[in-house]
Amino acid sequence: MTLENVSSNKSFGGWNKQYTHRSTALNCNMRFAIYLPPQIASGKKVPVLYWLSGLTCTDENFMHKAGAQRLAAELGMAIVAPDTSPRGDDVADDADGSYDFGLGAGFYVNATQAPFNRHYQMYDYVVNELPALIEANFPVTQQRAISGHSMGGHGALTIALKNPARFSSVSAFSPIVNPMQCPWGQKAFSGYLGKDTEQWKAYDTTELMKHTDARLPALVDQGDQDNFMAEQLKPEALVTVAKSVGYPLELRMQEGYDHSYFFIASFIEDHLRFHAKHFA
To answer: For this structure, is 259 an active site residue?
Structure first.
């Protein structure tokens, strides 16, 4: 598969790059960002953290705002940030052009409903196609971790719970943990997956955690001043389920923090060190 390099910037001795490629899973051209730490210059292969961003984001938000490159360089860790949905003139969007469905809002599911099923196969893209592409073209190992924010936190947690053998650890900032019971999730799942709510359970963290045998280490940070917390994020639902099944979840309520990248930048070091520990 052909990769086209569209940007390259040196950062903390490594390189922050963007590439485009044709995605088979999504049936369109896609762009991703990758940070390659300085250790690769000596021929060393490094593990990879996959970062999934939230509603309205692209591959650029995390790389520009989180301040993760300094620590990734220290730890010898690559970071890969895909876009949040398929893109292109022929890719279906929300009829009203709203921010929480369609372009920029793929929710990391495999859509089953027309017209979205033609392109919106973000689950397959993140789980299978993108890692295979990264491992074939960059000096990385098959050690993987996954993290994300908001909609991307939902994606990271659900993907990790469904694929525990593929990841060493999972973390999230402000994740949508019970999308079946919040407006964002109900809108997205109705459009992508149809009205049968039994089908939704395959992409709901609280439902997956109830039934999984996986015990992948999990770290979640939630700001207590997040204006989406009560209606959309519902962290208490995740805590309840984790306790009921004995899942090794650490959920930290962070006083005074909101839903923004200022929050992510404040605690991203903890998350990268958490993943590095489990890579080791």
So the answer is: yes
